[in-house]
Amino acid sequence: MAGLPFALVGGGYAIAVLYAGVLLSLTVLGLPFVAAALLGARGLGAPHRWLLGRLLGTHVEAPAGLPRPEGVLARGRVVLADPVAWRALLYLLLRLPLGLLGFAAAVGLPLACGWLTGFPLWARLLEGPRPVGWADLVSVPLGVLILTALPATIRTLGGANRRLGVLLLGPAPAQRRVRELETARAGLLAENADRLHRLERDLHDGTQARLVALAITLSLTDDALAPAAGPDLARSRALVERARNQTDVTLAELRGLTRGIRPVALDGGLAQALPGLTATSPVPVAVRLDLREDVDPAVERAVYFCAAELLTNVAKHSGARSAELLASASGGRVRLVVRDDGRGGAAPGTDTDTGTVGGTATGTRTGSGLSGLAGRLAAVDGVLTVDSPPGGPTTVTAELPARL
């Protein structure tokens, strides 16, 4: 009902603009008029987006603002070539019949239902006593039938409004794609900066300190081997043993630090890396691979780390007794599927993620879990989908292009 005045104003504006634009198209005022009309159509899209969000629960992202080049002609050219404005004008035109139909359904159907259901009473109030006829027998069931169909009708028209608004009032596909890539790039840069900071801190506080300790131990060993009274073999043996242990610990730390940069397992490709990854999982994992095509190294890393995190979540949170990993590369696409028979309930959040693969995590971590994983996949044009009803099973699918 609230959409009718919006539809009337917007539809009337669109019809008037198109009519006047055709009339003025042969004059010098044609292009300036169309440019101003398109700006107006862009502005009229905002209240429709607000209405969709308030009453239909559908958030339609506002399109990006127009660039402002120098010069009146350049700005006019930008407005005339703006796909968002033309799509908004088309929306206003199509919203008029949909608004009229919706208002008729929202108002007319309940009135018809009330009239038909009470027809035997209204007829006798208006005409006085009368015998029961076929109209009295048919009207009540027909009114009940209309009442039963009313919610489905309203929902259908509401769904049409949603689809039309999402299709025509949001950013153009190219703009939406650019915005998604910018968001993914920003997330990837922030994650890489954080990872680099942690690497620097670990090298400074851990590995560097151990190497300093190793140098001190070797210096003490040298002192123990060349004293004035002769070498102290027992002390030298103990210092050499300490130096060897420090070397082993330092090498283990370096291996752990470099593993997050480029896993050695990927040197043989995903065909060797994924089975090796599943072999270390505490939950038995069945592996099925169909890797027919070569994959870019960046995509390989994304798939490997995605599989590692999903299998870790299965082991930590799902309570699963078995899992399955499927990976395929064909037709220019890479598909990774991790499925488990755990308790379910995994759900990536918008800003925070309390769900994990196969179950619910014990805490909330901003930008981590499935949400963080989806963001990392988006940086390589990947998409993460989660199917995890309560009680399980959980299926997480990652789809990426084989080549960037």
Secondary structure layout:
Blueprint lengths: L2 H22 L5 H26 L16 H9 L2 H35 L1 H9 L6 H35 L4 H53 L7 H27 L10 H10 L5 E7 L5 H22 L4 E8 L2 E8 L11 E5 L2 E8 L2 H10 L4 E5 L6 E8 L3
Parallel strand pairs: 1-2
Antiparallel strand pairs: 2-3, 3-7, 4-5, 6-7
Helix pairs in contact: 1-2, 1-4, 2-3, 2-4, 4-6, 7-8, 7-11, 9-10, 10-11
| DSSP E strands, number | 7
Estimate the strand proportion. Answer: 5-15%
What portion of residues is helical? Answer: 55-70%
Helical element count? 11
Arithmetic mean pLDDT: 80
Q: Distance between the terminal alpha carbons, to the nearest Å?
A: 48 Å
Order of helices and strands: HHHHHHHHHEHEEEEHEE
Overall body shape: elongated
Which structural class is indicated by helix and strand composition? alpha+beta
> Ranges with pLDDT <50 over ≥5 residues?
350-368
Strand order of the largest sheet: 1-2-3-7-6
Largest sheet: 5 strands, mixed
Gyration radius over CA: 34 Å
